[in-house]
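hi! just following up on the protien thing from before. the input was this:
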Amino acid sequence: MIHGGRLRQAREFAGLTQAELAQDLGIAQSRLSDAEHDRYRLPEPVAVEAAAVLGFAPGFFTAPPAVEISGTPAHLRSRAAGAAEEKRARRAGEVVLEQLLRMLAFIEPLPLRISAQAGADPAEAAASVRAVLGARPDQPLTGLIFALEHAGLLVVGLPVPARRRLDAFSFWHDRLPVLCLLDGTVGDQRTWAAAHELGHLVLDPTAAPTRAEEQAEAFAAHLLLPSAALAADLPPAGTLQQLTMLKHRWGVPLPALIRTVHRRGHIDTGRYTGLIRQISARGERLRDRVTQEPVKPRGFRKISGILYGPAPAQALAADAGWTPGFADTVLSLHATADELPHHRPRRTVDNVVTLHRRGSTRPTGSAG
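and the predicted 3d structure came back as:
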């Protein structure tokens, strides 16, 4: 039996409308709508075809979704993203997080060391989080994503292309903070997005949308660019070349660095405008020179390896009701041991964390 909620979830993740999927299946849209609301049972051949079109194994549809991302996560408020893109990102988060939670039932979890601080000042909250992460006030947090995983956050990569501002979102799920990272964001931008979303998780969840965005951006700036340390590092002239070197040291996007320097009064508005114009004029040539490789989260792949062995895609797919190809895609968005930044001389966190299996069991069978 196909559960309607699962059918709708898979369709929206695939980016299809009801009319488009109904046409692909050769049925009336009204029939598909009824099936998504559990008022009509699709015939077996149509159900099998639906699974193939939507890119999942038939077993994926035998149970209703266990995770629902409702509301509007922070970066999904962007006007740059359409409704279909927002839905696709949410549904991808539901699918991947559901399997991660299922696997975590067989793993001793890391203790959660970051908590909400409703009403806290962004600068004070950022300083508190840096202390929890074990980072000195003058230390770049280039390993932020790994540090957040070690602090108990659930960080997952999603097989959905990032857009201009639709690159990450966050939410609390059953008292667990979740950070979702869309695919294709360069390293420094991903670090900034993670810090911004951490601000949403830590700061006042009742703030109005505009205020919440301002607070999250201020939190990210204080977390990644502590005021005193940044002021001490700033070169007197503040040329674009000097700021580019500083951007590499702190591991943040160049526009965000310049914006922060301006907001803190280190450069005036005229100088700020001139620097932004230089970045715009140099365009792709500058971006090619200053961008960094994306940092992938580690936890999902590590847990898969513990439960399913060193080549986990087949067993992961069988347990989740995914196809092996989809399992491979999701795994590719999470770091292997060889992809951890051991070579970085200024590593800010220990990249090795020990997870233990609960007993000798592991998930078996499909999601149903």
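The chain has two domains: 1-65, 66-228+293-368.
Strands lie at 107-108, 154-161, 168-173, 176-183, 356-357.
cheers
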